[in-house]
Design the sequence.
């Protein structure tokens, strides 16, 4: 990690560049006192995108904030705007007294204190002397959970933007850095950041652009002509030095014959570990079997909860609510995913390779009766659909084994109302929530096994139709917003 205060030496050419740009943006600030171009349609759409990406009540820093309109629209708990234009800063302080404004250059952020949940570069990197240096400057302002969100113009729009400026419809610009998302990804990597995803936004930055900007821009070939490129990144984190406590949540309905094996086969992980069984209205003696095995394995920390609601999602939420660990794991009691694989999930999370670790059943060959042919094809279809919707690769959406940090789950739970309550499995509730928080999702292949006891609780056709509804719902709430 870079040190909090790296000296930045300014050469003659850079100093001249800065002076020219400061004078330019001071003039733009004065111009905006009495002028309104057509950019309001673009900025209104931009604000809507950022409000989807950043929930209210977070600590937000914007580099190149101008007068702070975008930052203020995010309703931050702490909002800090940085700009090198004194005229922009003065007007911002008058317009948005609830925000903190700092007059500083993006290449030297030593005057900015604290850490932030989100750091924004909105139409800023196009105008910087040294983009990698600016990314270096924000490292000490990040926590492992900080998201860096960048939007910048596509070069395809260089001519239209130039024409708009000539007709006084857009604010004048000096010569720009015209970059691709690959260019920005490379500079973020050099500065110690991992890119989570990138995509295109805003096809028509003028009136009557709602359909084009919400729908057409998501589709090929229209997306290739978008005005804005978006990139979301996170700091590259080092593996934790301290071992956290782990809670393994085991929803169990009609799984009496598998309980003994769960106790015998689940490896010890972390500084401490607990098994949290949630028994859900079984027709066999699952509850009694769990009690017997708890007594037979006094050296294994375990608890037993009786589910009052219905469905796996309800059982998982009860287990998560009662769990004491820093890391939350889900293990299906049918043991079709071997408990011996759980340490691999734990290490992927602990090493910061991912923030939401998802099991994948569709890579390795399966045992003969592990998954029926139609179920396999259905899972393939839904994995492709949700990968497209979420903007991150999701190979298998219904593998029951998922691992995440408690603090991230708590944020998912707070924002659960955004997606609704109709997921009976709980898998999509967690996947959608992690994607909405811009957490890095990582797949881990597992070898899927046949059941050795009981039968599946999933109805192929009933739940298949429900999943189709979820595809449509997720498209509306995540993709076409």
Sequence:
């Amino acid at each position: 990690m870079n040190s909090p205060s790296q000296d930045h030496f300014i050469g003659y050419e850079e100093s001249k560049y800065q002076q020219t740009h400061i004078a330019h943006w001071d003039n733009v600030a004065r111009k905006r006192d009495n002028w309104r171009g057509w950019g309001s349609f673009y900025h209104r759409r931009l604000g809507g995108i950022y409000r989807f990406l950043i929930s209210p009540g977070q600590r937000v820093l914007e580099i190149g904030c101008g007068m702070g309109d975008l930052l203020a629209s995010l309703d931050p708990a702490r909002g800090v705007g940085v700009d090198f234009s004194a005229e922009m800063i003065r007007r911002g302080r008058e317009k948005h007294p609830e925000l903190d404004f700092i007059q500083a250059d993006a290449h030297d952020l030593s005057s900015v204190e604290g850490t932030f949940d989100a750091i924004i570069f909105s139409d800023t990197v196009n105008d910087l002397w040294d983009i990698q240096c600016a990314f270096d400057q924000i490292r000490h302002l990040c926590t492992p959970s900080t998201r860096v969100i960048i939007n910048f113009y596509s070069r395809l729009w260089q001519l239209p933007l130039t024409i708009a400026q000539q007709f006084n419809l857009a604010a004048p610009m000096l010569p720009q850095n015209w970059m691709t998302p690959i260019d920005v990804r490379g500079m973020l990597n050099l500065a110690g950041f991992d890119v989570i995803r990138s995509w295109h936004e805003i096809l028509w930055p003028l009136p009557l652009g709602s359909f084009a900007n919400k729908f057409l821009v998501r589709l090929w070939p229209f997306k290739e002509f978008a005005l804005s490129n978006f990139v979301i990144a996170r700091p590259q984190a080092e593996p934790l030095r301290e071992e956290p406590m782990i809670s393994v949540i085991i929803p169990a309905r009609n799984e009496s014959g598998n309980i003994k094996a769960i106790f015998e086969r689940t490896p010890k992980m972390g500084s401490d570990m607990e098994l949290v069984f949630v028994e859900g209205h079984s027709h066999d003696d699952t509850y009694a079997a769990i009690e017997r095995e708890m007594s037979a394995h006094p050296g294994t920390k375990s608890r037993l909860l009786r589910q009052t609601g219905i469905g796996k999602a309800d059982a998982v939420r009860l287990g998560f609510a009662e769990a004491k660990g820093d890391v939350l794991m889900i293990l299906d009691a049918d043991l079709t995913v071997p408990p011996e694989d759980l340490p691999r999930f734990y290490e992927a999370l602990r090493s910061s390779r991912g923030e939401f670790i998802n099991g994948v059943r569709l890579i390795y060959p399966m045992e003969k009766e592990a998954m029926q042919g139609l179920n396999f094809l259905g899972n393939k279809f839904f994995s492709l659909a949700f990968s497209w919707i979420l903007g991150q690769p999701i190979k298998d959406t219904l593998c029951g084994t998922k691992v995440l940090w408690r603090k991230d789950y708590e944020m998912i739970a707070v924002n659960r109302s955004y997606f609704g309550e109709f997921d009976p499995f709980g898998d999509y509730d967690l996947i959608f929530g992690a994607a909405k928080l811009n957490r890095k999702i990582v797949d881990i292949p597992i070898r899927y096994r046949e059941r050795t006891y009981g039968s599946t609780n999933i109805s192929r056709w009933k739940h298949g139709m429900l999943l189709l509804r979820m595809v449509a719902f997720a498209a509306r709430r995540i993709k076409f917003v």
